[in-house]
Hints:
151 residues, 5 strands, single chain, five-stranded parallel beta sheet
Amino acid sequence: MTESLRVLLVEDNPGDADLTRAGLEKSQFPIELTVLASGTEAVAFIQRKGKFADEPRPDLVLLDLNLPGVDGQYVLSEIKRNDEMKRVPVSILTSSSAESDVARSYELGANSYVVKPFDFKNHQSIVRAVEEFWFRVVKLPPRVAPCSTGN
């Protein structure tokens, strides 16, 4: 594989973002990582507003639920409502193990739900497992050109 896989990580905790980044840097796949630290930024990215107008669509979204601005479940609902993003798989990567969060995330269209471990070694294992699953085991939807107006 020569083309980079695009991953959007929406994570407000800099430490968790760094752990995820470090795990993905060890990947066997070329990964282009974009990190956003708030739900508000993520919604602007999804809607291609402001500085995100020309950002390429990700192949995978790793989404925390507990975010400043709007929460991850709102971001997830925006992803699944957006014609250009709704086919992009979304893996919830959060510290919440609440059954209500799990159920609501799947109701909104999450493709997987992973509870973040609290230590470095296990966090790295989780990131590698997510990467292995999404980039080696499953077939991702094809990238599509942005929808043009008038069609």
